[in-house]
Amino acid sequence: MGSNAETRRSGCPISCSLDLLGDKWSLLIVRDMVMLRKHYFKEFLASAEGIATNILTDRLNRLEGGGIISKQPDPENRRQIVYTLTEKGVALIPVLVELMSWGKIYAGTTSVDRDKARRMQQDRRYKQRVIRELTEGCTSTPGRS
Amino acid sequence: MGSNAETRRSGCPISCSLDLLGDKWSLLIVRDMVMLRKHYFKEFLASAEGIATNILTDRLNRLEGGGIISKQPDPENRRQIVYTLTEKGVALIPVLVELMSWGKIYAGTTSVDRDKARRMQQDRRYKQRVIRELTEGCTSTPGRS
DNA sequence: TCCCACCGCTTGCTTTTTGCAAGTGATGGA
DNA sequence: TCCATCACTTGCAAAAAGCAAGCGGTGGGA
What we know:
The structure is a homodimer. Chain A starts with 12 loop residues before the first helix and ends in a 6-residue tail after the last helix. In chain A, strand 1 (69-73) and strand 2 form a beta hairpin. In chain A, helix 6 (93-107) crosses helix 7 (114-122). The model of chain A has no long low-confidence stretch (mean pLDDT 88). By secondary structure, chain A is mainly alpha-helical. The first copy, chain A, is 56% helix and 7% strand. The first copy, chain A, has eight helices and two strands. At the A-B interface, helix 1, helix 2 and helix 6 of A face helix 1, helix 2 and helix 6 of B. Chain A binds a DNA duplex through residues 1, 23-24, 40-42, 45, 51-58, 60, 77-81.
């Protein structure tokens, strides 16, 4: 299950983005890091969607190869590895926010806060605040889980 | 290659969005409709990335099943089918714009307009204008190719 | 009317990826 | 030393992607 040479299908920026992120798992890992402040293999593994270990390993390597995350040995516990977002990864936050916003309105089962989501969809300031806060949270040093 | 029952992996809006759109082709089809004003099977087929006919059929059905596009027989030429975006599909434009913006800066080969893209990334008004114009272009009646 | 090009789509097949379960070597604490 | 836990591998079956060829229906031209 190699994380091999990423061949670009075209020069289109959207296509290039999807070459890196166009699957069901990569952006969920980024979501875990951004929204849930996860940094460890076992934490990603414990997410509700239930990723398999081999897929997780592959995606983490791919994301690292694509410069979106970086992996370092945990200074506090050398048994585990800390995964953190790079600048390139933090820059994905607006994509995540738009996907979340769209999903809340159009792809959700829980129609509870659909109206709230729709309002937020139109309220650019609110969305910008969300993006700013998340970004700040990701560029500062991470707290332990 | 059935476009069968879409099982949701979790209730997370991002996960729900990716259940529908998390692959290498779906969003490219939406891009073709939004950015390049494509409406026909053969037009999608002709895109630079080179999608196969069976995959295209599957994705079009899946997108229709997900309420993102609708297909009708072309009133002007009953041999072909017109694919158009629904409101739900048009609402994906901000996602596309963010993916494009990110891709231009971080995933591109052509570093030509990377600075311009980075400026645009910060300039929320410009991005909003792009989104507005694209959205208006998609909600009005489509011109012929 | 007959023929033919073109439309979206299907089929058959191989290759690649995913998903699942079990196992592995390294590490650190008791 | 023993043992739990860490990230990660491996083996195998199922699903999806990719490729090439073919198919039925339509409309236009002769």
